[in-house]
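Structure tokens please, single chain.
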Amino acid sequence: MAFAWKAAGITYNRYLAVAARVVRRSLKEGPRLQAERRGEMDLRFAKWQNGKQGEVKNLSEANAAAASELAAQEAKSS
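Here you go.
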């Protein structure tokens, strides 16, 4: 089987993230800590309206807030 990640039902990007995490965890203590810091990401986005940039937000925090709002709306409708 040429593409095990496809058979597992994950995307190539997810496959790479898992592989990178495994390699980082297999390193000795000093190099492992440096590699783990390089592996951290902080994604931000901003909504643009009428040619002006809105507030810059952290993607993970925005996703968590949206998920909690959705859960609250579903709880109200039940």
